[in-house]
């Protein structure tokens, strides 16, 4: 029997299941801190991605809507987990800086992220993981090519 096609629908469904499992893995952190999953995601994103400290970077890289990011940033600032600081040389941008209060949350979040990643790759060999990394790198290249073509108004042709 031939393998089923890898459809866009199947990819979206798998991505949604991944996100659901990830949020389930972070649920102890959310329960302990009272933070919603999106707020915990924002803290961990900022901690794990130096140089991506603006709301715009969070929106682009995590695929979140600006209104959602803004809402959670306001909450995180209000609760003392983040501070806003002007970006030197660009008065339109604001850097989001983690506070000391965020440190234990980030530490626990990183432990949960590592546990999630370890459980996700359970049963895969180093060879499997190397092959997976190559596939993801190819997906990344192809995604960027598709995005670039679409931003230039180029129509994508089916091969």
Descriptive notes:
This protein is mainly alpha-helical. Helices cover 64% and strands 9% of the residues. It has 7 helices and 2 strands, in the order H-H-H-H-H-E-E-H-H. The chain has helices at residues 8-25, 27-33, 37-48, 55-62, 66-78, 103-120, 126-151; strands at 82-87, 90-98. The protein has a two-stranded antiparallel ribbon with strand order 1-2. A hairpin with a 2-residue loop joins strand 1 and strand 2 (90-98). The radius of gyration is 19 Å and the shape is globular.
Give short descriptive properties of this protein.
159 residues, mainly alpha, two-stranded antiparallel sheet, 2 strands
Brief sketch in words of this structure:
This protein is mainly α. It contains 7 helices and 2 strands; from the N terminus they run αααααββαα.
Describe how the helices and strands are arranged:
Blueprint: H1 8-25, H2 27-33, H3 37-48, H4 55-62, H5 66-78, E1 82-87, E2 90-98, H6 103-120, H7 126-151
Antiparallel strand pairs: 1-2
Helix pairs in contact: 3-5, 3-6, 4-5
Approximate helicity band: 55-70%
> What is the residue-mean pLDDT, rounded to a whole number?
91
Uncertain parts = none
How large is the share of residues in beta strands? 5-15%
Query: What does the main sheet amount to?
Result: 2 strands, antiparallel
Structural class: mainly alpha
| C-alpha Rg (nearest Å) | 19 Å
How many beta-strand segments?
Answer: 2
In which order are the strands of the major sheet placed?
Answer: 1-2
């Amino acid at each position: 029997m031939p393998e089923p096609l890898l459809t866009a629908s199947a990819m979206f469904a798998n991505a949604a299941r991944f996100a659901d499992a990830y949020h389930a893995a972070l649920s102890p952190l959310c329960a302990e801190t009272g933070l919603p999953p999106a707020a915990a995601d924002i803290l961990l994103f900022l901690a794990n991605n130096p140089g991506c400290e603006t709301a715009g970077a969070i929106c682009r890289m995590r695929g979140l809507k600006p209104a959602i990011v803004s809402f959670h940033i306001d909450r995180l600032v209000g609760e003392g987990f983040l501070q806003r600081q002007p970006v030197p040389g660009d008065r339109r941008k604001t850097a989001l800086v983690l506070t000391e209060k965020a440190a234990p949350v980030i530490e626990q979040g990183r432990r949960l992220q590592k546990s999630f990643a370890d459980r996700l790759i359970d049963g895969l060999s180093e060879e499997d993981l190397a092959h997976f990394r190559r596939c993801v790198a190819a997906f990344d290249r192809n995604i960027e090519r598709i995005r670039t073509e679409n931003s230039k108004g180029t129509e994508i042709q089916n091969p």
